[in-house]
Amino acid sequence: MALSCSSLCSHLSLIRLCGLRTNRITHGLYSPHVSHQSSLALCRHYSSSKVRRGIGRYVASKLEIAHSRYESFLKRRFPKFFQLYHTLVEGFKLLYQDVKEASKIKAKMSQGIPFEDLPYREMAKFRQFRRNIIKATPLMMMSIPPFANYLVFVLMYFFPRQFLIPHFWTPAQHVEFQGLYHSLRAQHYWPVLKGLEKTNRQIKDSQLHGRLKDLCAKVQSGANPKVSEILAVRSLFSGPPLGIKRISVDQMRHISPLLFLTPRLPGFLIRRRLNSHALELLQLDRALSRLGPHQLSDSELREACYVRGLNSYSLSINQCREWLSQWLQVSSSLKDSEMSLLLHSIVFLSANYPNGPGRH
Questions:
Q1: How many Å apart are CA 80 and CA 47, to the nearest integer?
Q2: Rounded distance, CA 64 to CA 72, Å?
Q3: Is residue 136 part of a domain?
Q4: How many domains, in total, are found in the chain?
Q5: Which residue of 17, 239, 280, 305 is surrounded by the most CB atoms within 10 Å?
């Protein structure tokens, strides 16, 4: 009903605008030399415009009253359904706002500004919008047929995490689902480390072999490695056997969920998607470094940490700032050819931060 009210009000506003414009033109053309019949015609047109404006205001006010009464009725008699209804309406407003902002960013890119040169907030907004719209499209298509919006309400009520984007989550659901998604991601931390240990046997350089072995052992023991210890093995992740183009399919299948990507695809598609998302994340880090992490609001800071592998909603703001600083120290030192290390750093930096394994 809210959507219908908005649509009708916009049409009425257009009618009123056309009426006002017509009146101004009419008034400008009128002069004492105009014929009596023309004067009567203009007066009739002027009067009908006033009538249309009056009808428009009356209908709009009645719709607003009906809408407020409808919401009051839902809130009083069906509080749970009202919360669902209110979340849906507000979610569509947020989604519409995102569409407008993404359109402006897309227009800027069409003028020759590449994605990697966008400001951090625009880059993050556009990246998240593309992910959200992919997930939201099936639900929007389902709501097109008549009366299908009732099915949308059912899906919202029973399967909000599976079918809805965060715009349509309640604040409590947002915290709950973020924690659940992170727990699913954290299940792949140890398999990633085991895969590194298995691959480490192929490394012939004894010094690099020992450094990677010590790094994996330190994370598995529940400790947090230093940035210098991570960067000490960076050369292993630019070529065989751990470079993004040489890493094993099994290892890629465990890394994919760290970025919330499905591992149930052919190996060549997983590799291409990992390469694309890792490069995007590296570009996002560079834009954040240009902006300065201290410029982020608390919510932006938590979201930045969460995207990079940390369950930031269970930590304090100071802990998030500390972790993000460590992440950017690693990221800012890497080349495009070392993106594989950036993906593995999700495990190195997040698995035990700040206290121990399995707690975050």
A1: 48
A2: 12
A3: yes
A4: 3
A5: 305
**Do 192 and 243 have their domain in common?**
yes
Each residue of 42-64: pLDDT tens digit? 445 445 666 667 777 777 776 77
177 lies in a domain? Answer: no
231 in the same domain as 94: no
22 with 96, same domain: the answer is: no
Mean pLDDT, all residues of the chain: 82
pTM score of the predicted model: 0.75
- Note whether 4 and 91 are same-domain residues: no
The radius of gyration of the chain from alpha carbons, rounded to an integer in Å, stands at 28
Higher-confidence position of 150 and 51 = 150
Please check whether residue 340 lies inside any domain of the structure: yes
Tally Cβ neighbours within 10 Å of residue 70. 15
CA pseudo-torsion sign 164, 166, 168, 173: positive
Q: Is residue 331 part of a domain?
A: yes
Q: Are residues 207 and 336 in the same domain?
A: yes
327, pLDDT greater than 50? yes
User: Which residues make Cβ contacts (< 8 Å) with residue 42, sequence separation at least 6?
Assistant: 26, 29, 30, 34
pLDDT at 159: 86
Q: Last residue of some domain: 29, 52, 77?
A: 77
Number of residues written out for the chain? 360
Counting residues of the chain whose pLDDT is more than 90, the rounded percentage is 56
Rounded Cα distance, 140 and 122, in Å: 25
User: Domain of 190?
Assistant: 186-350
Inter-residue contact 292 to 325 (CB < 8 Å): no
Domain termination site, one of 140, 169, 198: 169
